[in-house]
Amino acid sequence: MDFLRKTPLEKLQLEYKKLLSEAHKLSKVDRKKSDQKMAEANEVLKQNR
Predict the structure, then answer these.
(1) Kindly report the CA angle at 46 between 41 and 47, in degrees rounded to 5?
(2) CA–CA separation, 43 vs 7, rounded Å?
(3) Are 46 and 24 in contact (CB under 8 A)?
(4) Nearest 10 degrees: CA dihedral of 35, 38, 43, 44?
(5) What is the tens place of the pLDDT at every residue in 11-34?
(6) What is the mean pLDDT of the chain?
(7) Taking the model in full, what pTM does it have?
């Protein structure tokens, strides 16, 4: 079952995609919260490198 486990990189990529999706949804409602989600996504992206 080891082949089904996600690597730390894959986990970060999934987190990044999730945050971007949330930011996009929030951009239609609350720009400030959307910007906060984008900042979180950028932090995850920095960890990814």
Answers:
(1) 95
(2) 18
(3) no
(4) 150
(5) 999 999 999 999 999 999 999 999
(6) 91
(7) 0.83
Residues 6 and 14 sit within 8 Å (Cβ to Cβ): yes
**Nearest-angstrom CA–CA distance, 22 and 11:** 17
Residue type, 15: E
What are 24-31's contacts with CB under 8 Å, separation 24+? none
Residue with tokens 């970060």: 12
36 has a pLDDT exceeding 60? yes
List Cα–Cα distances, 36 to 5, 8, 24, in angstroms: 30, 23, 11
